[in-house]
Specification:
This protein has 228 residues and is α/β, with parallel strands linked by helices. The protein has seven helices and 14 strands. Pfam families: Lactamase_B.
Length: 228
């Protein structure tokens, strides 16, 4: 795992497939996504390297119901008493009650999707609080939940207006450029989500895959939205 500083209070954990983020409000910690099933120990080590106690993880917000985003969430939550939050539309998938919805793949996405399936299956995971969008969560000066459908029906983004930070989950990706995320179940819906996220004019954008965007973020997001 790579540990990457995005902002003094924000770090990224980069895994073989996917990534998660740690937001620090003093000693209180929030995880955005939980990596795959094998990520718990690496996340704990990363938290300690930063001088924090994993027992201060208060919540784990799952951006959507894909295996690389919530695999270790319940292990960490059970160990440290954290609350797990996810959108109500993806909760049945995360709990193992429904299968993952099949994406509408473009031809060039197929080999990437096959690679993604090499990530180990996530276990059925509890969700303590179901989100619908519009909630304000108690971290980062007030983190607004934005329903961001398209990648999955219950994808969410998190916007921290006080800090100008936006977590997009897989609604947006950063590869050679910032772009619409891949493997969408509803490509038109995903494009509409990208336009709504760009309209937030963030200063820092944290993606589910790819390097965070820390320079000219609002303009880059607008360009990506215009090309979606």
């Amino acid at each position: 795992m790579d540990l990457v500083e995005v902002l003094p209070q924000l770090h990224m954990f980069r895994f073989r497939i996917g990534q998660a983020y740690l937001w620090r409000d003093g000693a209180d910690l929030t995880l955005v996504d939980g990596g795959d099933i094998a990520s718990a120990a690496a996340i704990e080590d990363g938290v300690r390297v930063l001088g924090n106690d994993p027992a201060r993880i208060r919540r784990i917000v799952i951006t959507h119901g894909h295996r690389d985003h919530y695999g270790a969430a319940q292990e960490l939550a059970d160990r440290y008493g954290a609350e797990i939050l996810a959108h109500a539309l993806d909760t049945p998938v995360i709990r193992g009650e429904r299968p993952v919805p099949e994406p509408d793949l473009l031809d060039w996405e197929r080999p990437l999707y096959a690679q993604g399936l090499t990530c180990p299956e996530a276990p059925p995971t509890r969700v303590d609080r179901e989100l619908t969008g519009g909630e304000v969560l108690p971290f980062g000066g007030g983190a607004r939940v934005v329903h961001a459908p398209g990648h999955t029906p219950g994808s969410v983004a998190l916007h921290l207006p006080r800090h100008g930070v936006l977590f997009t989950g897989d609604a947006v990706a950063s590869a050679e450029r910032v772009m619409l995320g891949v493997f969408n179940v509803d490509r038109a819906g995903a494009a509409a989500t990208l336009r709504r996220l760009a309209a937030l004019a963030p200063r820092t954008v944290c993606f589910g895959h790819g390097d965070p965007l820390t320079e000219d973020a609002a303009a880059v997001m607008e360009t990506a939205a215009n090309g979606a």
